[in-house]
Design goal:
The chain has two domains: 31 residues, no CATH class; 106 residues, Jelly Rolls. 15% of the residues lie in helices and 43% in strands. The mean pLDDT is 84. The strands form two sheets. The protein has a six-stranded mixed β-sheet with strand order 6-3-10-1-9-8, with no helix packed on it. A hairpin with a 7-residue loop joins strand 4 and strand 5. It is α+β, with helices and mostly antiparallel strands. The two termini are 40 Å apart. It is globular, with a radius of gyration of 20 Å.
Length: 143
């Protein structure tokens, strides 16, 4: 094998760099064991709003906007942020937050429907539709 990267073809260099990148990720996951859960799959029509309380220590909530849009509201008064399909939110400190459709209208009543693997959060709102996954990553108790 070559003694340095300059003697290797570019494709092999890319493969070696990717192998090292995977090694770092593997090492990180070994140091901080992590599990995950999907808490809800939301299918909501405007007007809607979901308030999320602060999470327990070791829980990292996440939201994935699959379709439609949402507005992130920070209860501490930071500016709101519009989220669109493809956006992923992580709350590494588990802070309280709210997501809503951006209107000032009272939210349509929501209901939950459970299946074997998923809890669906739905409403009968007739406005713009949101498709979102909500869950959390759970750090092991030893960290």
């Amino acid at each position: 094998m070559a003694d340095n990267f300059k003697d290797l073809p570019d494709r092999l260099i890319d493969e070696i760099e990717m192998e090292h990148a995977r090694d770092w990720l593997s090492r990180l996951l070994e140091m901080i064991p992590l599990n995950g859960t999907l808490d809800y799959r939301c299918f909501l029509g405007a007007p809607w709003r979901i308030d999320f309380p602060a999470s327990e220590l070791g829980d990292i909530p996440y939201h994935v906007i699959l379709g439609g849009s949402a507005v992130l509201e920070d209860p501490e008064g930071n500016p709101t942020r519009k989220l669109i399909a493809g956006d992923i939110l992580l709350f590494p400190h588990g802070s309280a937050h709210a997501l809503h459709d951006g209107s000032d209208a009272a939210p349509a009543p929501a209901r939950q429907r459970s299946t074997l693997t998923t809890v669906f959060h739905e409403n009968d709102g007739s406005g713009d539709r949101l498709d979102m996954m909500c869950g959390r990553f759970i750090l092991s108790a030893e960290h």
